Amino acid sequence: MTRPSLSPAEGAAWARQAERSSIPVMRFMVWLSLTLGRRLSRTVLHGIALYFLLFSPQAGRASRAYLQRVLGRPPALAERYRHILTFATTIHDRIYFLNGRFNLFDIEIHGSEHVEALLAKGRGILLFGAHLGSFEVLRAVGHRYSTQPICMLMHAENARKINQVLAAINPDAHQDILPLGQLDSMLQLRDRLDAGQLVGVLADRNPGGNGTRQLPFLGSPAPFPNGPFRLAALLQRPVLFMSGTWEGGRNYRVELSPLADFSGVEPRERATAIAEAQHAYAARLEAHCRRAPYNWFNFFDFWSDRRS
């Protein structure tokens, strides 16, 4: 399982240890989950959620502060536990999604007509999501459009770590990661989009250090990264907002909706178009957080912390 974000000092120490230990643990969890099935292996998640509720104070404070914002009142202990359990559930279900076990879930897809309309024009699509629910459930969209797989765009170091985890779950899954920060990254991205592929970006963190814009979010200004929106504008591509929230039991809800279209935007209009898209993104994310409050997983002080 992936541990929620910690303070810089605590996080650095844990990260060094995690590099050595997380992959064997993940392989064990994969074996356990695929052998016992989802219902039985899920019993482990309750102990994991309780452990982090009791022994991860930094993440606990951030969770409590976020829930107070989104619920409009101090959260009860059971609600704080539910937040962590939801996170653990989406990580656990990643094992099944990455192994093609879509039949284990009831997945509602809303807004697929927007994908169909753009694909019918032969256009690749940028899907801007967040640390909201499960990115892997969006593979169900790619599963529906099997000739147009979804890949995930991320910075090279994050891609390396994620690929280690994905290789432990399914050795073929690493092919769905497109790393940024390499000489040919932009060319690869352009080529994938030109081929009509779907490319996902989690646009609520700033690992690349490309600057942020302060935007209203759940009652206070918060830093949102500029990089994904500048990229979409430079490539002049349409952007859909995506979310895949866990609704309890075996139920997931995928939503796709138009966010921005930078096609044909003139250079002199680019800054305004980017700013409008960023404001729309923050507003859309806030609406989804209010609808499914336990599905947003930024376990640090998002409003004051500038880390990725």
Roughly how much helix do the residues carry, as a percent range? Answer: 40-55%
Q: How does the helix and strand content classify structurally?
A: alpha/beta
Biggest sheet layout: 7 strands, mixed
Output the helix-strand order: HHHHHEHEHEHEHEEEHEEH
Strand order of the largest sheet: 1-9-8-2-5-3-4
Q: Tell me the radius of gyration.
A: 19 Å
Strand content: 15-25%
Distance between the termini: 19 Å
Number of strands: 9
User: Treating each run of at least 4 consecutive H or I residues as one helix, how many helices?
Assistant: 11
Which descriptor suits the 3D outline? Answer: globular
| Low-pLDDT residue intervals, each spanning 5 or more residues | 1-21
If you average the pLDDT, what whole number results?
A: 84
What can you see in these coordinates?
The strands form 2 sheets. This protein has a 7-stranded mixed beta sheet. Strands 6-7 form a two-stranded antiparallel ribbon. It is 50% helix and 19% strand. It is of the alpha/beta class and 308 residues long. Helix 1 packs parallel to helix 8, helix 3 crosses helix 5 and helix 4 crosses helix 5.
Compact overview of the structure:
The chain has 11 helices and 9 strands.
Please tag this protein with its features.
308 residues; two-stranded antiparallel ribbon; single chain; disordered N terminus; 9 strands; alpha/beta; globular; 7-stranded mixed sheet
